[in-house]
Amino acid sequence: MEYVRRYSLENKISFDPFDLQADISQSTFYRHANKLIKKDADVRNFLRGGLDALGDMNISVKRDYLNENEEWQIDATKYDFMCLNEMGEPQRYEAIGMIDVASGKLVYELAESPNSYANVRLLKKAFLKMGRPGYIKGDNGKDYVSKHFQGVLARLGVSYIAAAPFKGYQKGVIERAHGVMQNFFENLPGFIGHNAGERIKKENEALEKSKRLSGVKTNITNLLTKAEMQATIDRYCERKSKFSKDVDSGWFDERVFGKSYGRVLNAGGININNMIYQSLELYKNLKIGDSVEVIEDIDDISKMYVYAKGEFVCVVEDDERQNISAEKLKKAKKEYHKENIAPVKNYIKSLRDEKDAYYKKIAKQNLDEKMK
């Protein structure tokens, strides 16, 4: 119809949608249209994806021009396995990966959920195994553009390039690595399938219907622990990457991987999250009232690293809290909220609901009386 309309417009004749006439037959039109679609990529892209597809050129070239450790890519994926957590319960983890585009060397870290601490631990592992990258490419996820993750990169002098939204091909190397890694481990216990259909099939294979338990995360047995699965993934990466034992780590600084806090030095020390950190070294190098930057130790919250004007000053400690990781502290806060705060909130909500139900009942009775 559109062809006929345009034909009528160009030839200055009336257009009647109920009496379509043109200079060619319908079959001739389709034949020529198919030739055009095959020949013209813009027409083909428009018909497949509309206007958005016209700007999506997706140009790709052979990437031999990249040198090793010039571009790394980072991304997270839901891991298609159930593992046993620290409590011995089945849990599905996120697999966060980092790959060097030129060499294909890669590392992975399992985490309960994508977060800046998990990303930083992966970053630390990658630095020690692969060296130092020119830049890292990832997406615009909040964990990658967070102050914590970006602060660590800035302190180490590594740039971050965010891929455009919905342009997965811009970090396609790490996304393909996810698929290869997931497929490689399909025979391990705990594999739950790559999609919902495979998940149902795996669960059905695990146990006969009469013995299945309702409400459990999985009926699959003989699960590996998280530590065992992480060791298996590390072994996979070692064999695939053939890491060098002579990686330059002279530039590497263990003290820069934690979150950063700006504070003012006072006589009592430095207060971070209601914890007091103190050291006599502070007052040998600084004056009370001086501004400092404090960076946490992600493996031991009893320690903080103090910097002034970009220069390291000293380590400050809280002796009451030693050898507790930042993640464990975060988890303890969540558990406290779940056990103590959430029940109170739920109780308050139940009282509010009860009150609202009472007044709603009274209002309905009043309305019924009025309608009599």
Q: Could you characterize what this model shows?
A:
Pfam families: Mu-transpos_C, rve. There is one protein chain. By secondary structure, the chain is of the alpha+beta class. It has four domains: 2-54, no CATH class; 71-241, 2-Layer Sandwich (Nucleotidyltransferase, domain 5), CATH 3.30.420.10; 258-317; 333-372. 41% of the residues lie in helices and 19% in strands. The protein has helices at residues 2-10, 26-39, 41-49, 51-54, 116-130, 147-156, 172-184, 196-206, 226-241, 281-285, 326-371; strands at residues 71-84, 90-100, 106-111, 135-138, 159-162, 260-264, 270-272, 275-277, 291-296, 303-308, 311-317. Strand 4, helix 6 and strand 5 (159-162) form a beta-alpha-beta unit. Helix 2 crosses helix 3 (41-49). The mean pLDDT is 82.
Which oligomeric state applies? single chain
Proportion of helical residues:
40-55%
Q: Overall mean pLDDT score?
A: 82
Secondary-structure element order, N to C:
HHHHEEEHEHEHHHEEEHEEEH
CATH architecture of the largest domain: 2-Layer Sandwich
CATH superfamily of the largest domain: Ribonuclease H-like superfamily/Ribonuclease H
CATH class of the largest domain: Alpha Beta
Main beta sheet: strand number and arrangement? 5 strands, mixed
Contiguous low-pLDDT stretches (5 residues minimum) are none
Structural class: alpha+beta
Q: So what's the overall shape?
A: extended
Q: How many helices in DSSP terms?
A: 11
Tell me the strand order in the biggest sheet.
3-2-1-4-5
Q: DSSP strand (E) fraction?
A: 15-25%
Tell me the number of structural domains: 4
Gyration radius, rounded: 30 Å
End-to-end separation: 62 Å
Number of strands: 11
